[in-house]
Amino acid sequence: MNRFYDVAVVGGGAAGIAAALAAAECGRSVVLIEDYGFFGGTATISGVQSYCGFLTSGPNPQRVVAGMGQRVLEALQAFGHPVEPVLQSSGNWIILLDPERLKVVLDRLVLSAGITPLLHCRVIAAEGENGHIDALVCSHPEGSLRIEVGSVVDATGNANVAAMIAPHSIRPRLQAATLTVRIGNVEPGHAPDREALQAAVIDYQRRTQRHLARSNGGYFVPLPWSGSYWAMMIDVDLVNTDAHYLTRAEIEARGIAHDYLESLRRTVPGFERAILETSGPQLGIRSTRCVTSQQDVLADDALSARQRANGIARSGWPCELHPGNGVTEYRSIPHHGWFHVPFGALIPEGSDNLWLAGSSIGADDIAFGSVRVMGTGFATGHAAGVSAALSSRLSQRSGFDAVKRVLLEQGALL
């Protein structure tokens, strides 16, 4: 059965949720399409149990994301989930997440906004001519579904819709993929120190004759509501998201995780009976492709903390780069600690009714290290959702001034 929606949002992570909520608040009919059986994106699909980017770094953080992102935090807090920021040794502030509570909160927000959710639904084709999308074709467990649309927001995280409709605007962006895991059954009061983790790395490499990409032993964060640890300790190469490469990377990462867990049991005090409670359910894929937009966010924007007259969102996370397996580099944002994402970064070349959000926006590799995080994803998703809503009943894209006015009315920080 065909149905028309003013706005179709593809991808139910931070950016997609914000886009859908914003478009619905503009009075538009909205469908939110998600591959998995739940919303949350990287936070639930890849087990990244924190929101990064709501605050600038350092001892005196400044809030840079509000609007729809703030509404999600308020809904989490009302559900009994703590949302106080936690300072990390890097100087960055994060908000820890319980994926199971987050799933329920997002379900309720989507339904209460009158959005049509389509879970277990994947966009497999975009119909239209000359870059204009008339309909999306989706695959679901019982077959296929055709959805006619006014505007579309690509919040897939890897520019999947943009690659269908404007493949000439796509180029590769290769970064290491990370398998995040949750480790439980650790003796209380036994946080892993760097010396013990180094011993685990040595033990792993001796036993397996393999190099562990994260040579420092990984990044372990205690989860206050469970006594478990959220751990980022496994990096693998991912050339693209072709089924062959992705399958090999998933299998390789799981094998490394279990081998390394054995080394943690052998060397880290309190981890003798540790168990791997859960992984994934998918690798954390930062990016394998990027889109050329009308005005890409550039390294100089971030590294000079540039503010723009057409700034549509703020980005305050330092440029976090992963140039190779196990390598993390930060490049700080100076001065006030944040920079503007320009309106043109949401507009891909080659389409007149597709909007970009979250990790799909136009950005060079260095700036991408900042704008890709979920806090900033809420901000760019909010902007894309309003833009798509205002444009959905027009014959052209809505302009910056109209979008800005509605964003401010909806509580965004610009």
UniProtKB/TrEMBL annotation:
Q: Which Gene3D superfamilies match?
A: FAD/NAD(P)-binding domain
Signal peptide span: none
Question: Is Metal-binding among this UniProt entry's keywords?
Answer: yes
Coiled coil location: none
User: Which Pfam families does the annotation name?
Assistant: FAD_oxidored
Domain of life of the organism in this record? Bacteria
Concerning InterPro entries, the annotation shows:
FAD/NAD-bd_sf, HdrA-like
Alphabetical UniProt keywords: 4Fe-4S, Iron, Iron-sulfur, Metal-binding, Oxidoreductase
Molecular function as annotated in GO: 4 iron, 4 sulfur cluster binding; metal ion binding; oxidoreductase activity
Q: What is this protein called?
A: FAD-dependent oxidoreductase
Q: Which organism is it from?
A: Pseudomonas nabeulensis
